[in-house]
Amino acid sequence: MSAISILTLILAGLMLLVGGKAGLTAFFSAVFNFVILFITVILITGGLPPVWVAFFAGVCILAITIYMGNKDEKTANIAFKATLIVLIVMLILIIPLDHFAQIKGFANEQSEEIEAFDLLVGVNFEQLIIATTVLSTLGAIAEAAIAVASGLNELIEQRPTITLPEVFKSGKTIGFQIMGMTFNTLFFGMFGSDLALFILLYKLEAGFSYYLNSKIFVKECLAVLCSAIAVILVIWITTYLVGKKLNEKRAQIDK
Amino acid sequence: MKVNTKTWLKLALILVSCLCLYLFLRNDAFLYQQPIGKVVAVKQAAPEKTTDVYNNSDETTQQTLTLEILNGKYRGQSFKVNNTYSRSGGLDQKYHLGQQIFVNIHEHRGQKDIVISHYKRDVYLIMLSWAVVVLLYLTMQFQGIRSLLSVILNFVLFLLIVQVDVFLNLTNFFWLFAIAALLFTALSLALVIGLNKQFSVTFLAIFLGTTSALVIGCLVLYFTKSKGVHYEALDFATQSPKQLFLAATVIGLLGAVMDAATDIVSTLFEMKRSQPELTKQQLFKSGQVIGRSVMGPLVNVLLLIFFAETFAMSVLYFKTGNSIAYTFEWTMALGIVQALISGIGIVLTVPLASFLSAQFLGGK
After folding, report:
1. Would the N or C end of chain A have less CB density within 10 A of its end CB?
2. Structurally, how many domains does chain A consist of?
3. C-alpha separations of A174 from A54, A65, A114, A150, B36 in Å
4. Of B145, B126, B125, B147, the residue nearest B135 (C-alpha)
5. B312 contacts A69? CB cut-off 8 A
6. Closest to B83 in 3D by CA, of B65, B60, B98
């Protein structure tokens, strides 16, 4: 058996052991997300426009991550709505950004890995990097949206008389706590996988000018920054949506 | 709306600062030593269609750029240079009027030779960083900027460790990064929860969770003789790829494990504070419940980060006639193993953090 299948079995076993049925559901949500990402790559290879494929894949991934990981439907609905809005906003932001910054395709530092390939393969690499950036942030925004929505909903249940400004204030407090940790998750996740790159850059004795302008470094930094923006936006929008829902409910009761 | 003037003032300040920053960055060529050329004229040749052996059609176009040098001793001089770009743009790009490009100029017997080096990207990198700072300030004032502090400090530490690694050039450099991981954890936790009892419990949970996940990962890789995993496929490897991969895995999973552990430990401490009569068993159970709800999303966060990074390479493999199994093994397998080991770490942290907090907080 290959290392991957044994590790997968161990992960599934542990999730079942620790999380029971919920753990197994969480395991399958990761498996489904993997399948969707794999299909995304195949569809892009097949010639479909990467940005659209990524958008639809993104909607599916968000739905799976949020609805399979969360039993409370009210929380899940708000989190899903908020993440969808952020997904669209991020696409609108990233499309011009990646066009102007020209970080598509491969960098000169990667020439060793790609020298065996003919790069004229007719894929739109600019759209591909947009797809990559958008998809890599989805996990983090789904997690942040669920945390804020469930935290606020619990608060409203505990104190039904809470006022709207108080909800927004609590949203800020919860959001702040989550943000620090989410930034860490993103930072370590992304820079962890770039460890080899940083060692290489250091060995090349790259100067300040190189860091600010080289394709590969700017690409990795823009990905982290875009994720940070997405997380901030999702905290904002989720808090707003919870407040709006509460307002609507109260207006109904008043009638 | 009584805060009107103040809000407008803030908004104006943000807009003006963005504009100033943009104008400065567009004209900062004097800060660089390498010559920068601005495209002042472009002449396009007719595109040429190409088809490779796998029937992928593409188009290449040659353009002749006239560059005006903005800095250094060639300042003000014009040069002509050729650039070839393809429609897909895997390793090249089309240049437009007004764009700035780093160039190398060599003088050889009075003949000046000019070569394009790379595109000037600092404008976008710094503008976006500024946007993040402004957004953080708008959402939560100075508190928000403080949450960036931990990331910035970690980044500085990260660069220092890389420097030490290159300097020492150890054979077993994995251990250097393992120690670095401990430092990262301590630093981030100290900033988020301060140096107290909660810190020690969280730290211990993270340490044990990460270590056991790594031991499990290494044992599996050892007994399967890393079947289906090619360390050589690791990008940019300049040192032993296997150790580099393990070091990257440790750092990559750290953030997620930290997230899970702090969530559980801080909630349990808070519970004990408001309800001192809670028993060990009750605390352990509550910890498991919290853990269950964060486990799934966190595994997905890492899966998406590790997988999305392989997109460009996998598409290139598929497009050049490689089979699904081969492409998977050479481009995605490493990322998947990383995600799996991280997942194991996150899951193991849940009972560990619950157990340690329950033991520590005690009760009957």
Report:
1. C
2. 1
3. 30, 21, 45, 10, 47
4. B145
5. no
6. B65
Domain range enclosing A130 = 47-254
Q: Report d(CA B185, CA A188) in Å as an integer.
A: 11
Q: How far apart are CA B300 and CA B252, in angstroms?
A: 13
Residue among A37, A146, A191 whose CB faces B251 most closely: A191
> Is residue A174 domain-resident?
yes
Do B199 and B308 share a domain, yes or no?
Answer: yes
What value does the mean pLDDT of chain B take?
A: 89
Angle, helices B122-168/A73-101, rounded to nearest 10 degrees: 90
What distance in Å separates the CA atoms of residue B75 and residue B4, rounded to the nearest whole number? 48
Cβ contact (<8 Å) for A186 and B155?
Answer: no
Question: Are B340 and B237 within one domain?
Answer: yes
**Contact by Cβ (8 Å): B121, A101:** yes
Query: In terms of residue numbers, what domain contains B186?
Result: 170-361
Q: Give which of B164, B295, B305 to mutate to test A binding, by max A Cβ within 10 Å.
A: B305
Q: Could you state, in chain order, the average pLDDT of each consecutive group of 10 residues for chain A (255 residues)?
A: 92 94 91 95 93 96 90 89 96 93 87 83 91 92 91 85 85 82 85 84 82 89 91 92 88 80
- With respect to residue A86, please indicate whether it lies within any of the assigned structural domains: yes
Measuring CA to CA, which residue among A198, A56, A75 is closest to residue A135? A56
- Rounded CA-CA distance B359/B61 in Å is 69
Residue B177 within a domain? yes
- A32 part of a folded domain: no
Per CB-CB distance under 8 Å, the chain B contacts of A120 are 50, 52, 56, 58, 60, 86, 88, 90
Q: CB–CB of A120/B88 below 8 Å?
A: yes
Q: Which residues are CB-contacts of A157 (< 8 A; sequence separation ≥ 6)?
A: none
How many domains, in total, are found in chain B? 2
Inspect the interface and report whether the beta carbons of B147 and A183 lie closer than 8 Å: yes
- pLDDT value at residue B62: 93
Looking at residue B2, its pLDDT comes to: 52
- B178 within a domain of the structure (yes/no): yes
Domain match, B111 and B174 both:
no
pLDDT at B1: 43
**Which residues, listed in sequence order, are joined to residue B42 by a DSSP beta bridge?**
B65
Q: Do A186 and B305 count as a contact with CB atoms less than 8 A apart?
A: yes
